Amino acid sequence: MPGALLLLAATGVALVVAFLLLLYLVLPVNHPKPLSLSGAHVVVTGGSSGIGKSVAIECFKQGAFITLIARNEKRLLEAKREIEKFSVNDKQVVHSISLDVSKDYANVEKLLKQAQEKLGPVDMLVNCAGISVNGKFEDIDTYRFEQLMAVNYLGSVYPTRAVVTKMKERRMGRIVFVSSQAGQVGVFGYSAYSATKYALRGLAESLQMEVKPYNICVTIAYPPDTETPGFVEESQSKILETKLISESSSICQPDYVARIIVKNAVQGKFTSSFGVDGHMLRILTNGMAPVSSIAEILESVIFLGIFRLVSLYFIAGFDSIVRRCLVEREKSEKTD
Ligand SMILES: NC(=O)c1ccc[n+]([C@@H]2O[C@H](COP(=O)([O-])OP(=O)(O)OC[C@H]3O[C@@H](n4cnc5c(N)ncnc54)[C@H](OP(=O)(O)O)[C@@H]3O)[C@@H](O)[C@H]2O)c1
Hints:
Number of strands: 7
Order of helices and strands: HEHEHEHEHEHEHHHEHH
Bound molecules: NADP nicotinamide-adenine-dinucleotide phosphate
Largest sheet: 7 strands, parallel
């Protein structure tokens, strides 16, 4: 009898191994060679503050040469000085460019060409420049919808367009888009912002399919609320519903977010997510996104159904916050 059980167990293990091997051989999983950042040229848009500055520091600590892009020259210079403190060899350089990435493609292309003449072809581009606005749909000025789409979407398209041809010629490179958890789930108050971050997903998926044969990896990052100067400023005018809904998840530090983004980009992972909520949202919203490992596929197959049920609990909670706020507001309007 123990012999029969042993045989059964061995057959089970063999079947699981064969299944995993089959998955490995058949599934379109990308296994790129990790990119070494030592001596690499990394361009970070939005590199003078918050997540972008932390990404630049993380890459600099790993030996990269950095081009920092943002508009405000004073803040760029301060960030450049701060990043330079983390050098690991005396050859490393931080080059800064004052540039609005959302306007005038010809100018973006010209300045990125100059940056490549200085520090060599771009090995990794991190599109981090972004802005946010919070408010009820009908209260947001219509020009803000255009402005956000210009900075958050076109501001990622232009730098990418300016470096992708060279990356294809060299048959190597990494392109990172910094979306947001608001690019995975629409939240009260973020109608203008969310749309721009969802747009990045479509861009990232299409581009990844185009550049995969050239050994270029695209990563899309979905950070949660992160304590940055931009986040602190926005929090001061956040509407109550958004504040209460946001309280259901914790606030991350930019260094932590940057470490994960850089690690995932170097490894060539398509999706970069953060913490337990991020992990759950990634599984829930993967759709037909490219996969980076067998583990990712197994997780989706095993957990998708259960996470969908859990998400219903969260949606009900958010709807109840919205209803309560409306009742309170109408009550206080009546008493005024
Ligand atoms: N913080 C969060 O909670 C959070 C969560 C999810 C996703 N994100 C995303 O992460 C990215 C960084 O956010 P953050 O909170 O770190 O922002 P931040 O502290 O406000 O920094 C934004 C950076 O982008 C630059 N920038 C803004 N508009 C630009 C433009 N038109 N051209 C060039 N540079 C521009 C800013 O410099 P100048 O103003 O000098 O140009 C600054 O360097 C954004 O895409 C944001 O949507 C943030």
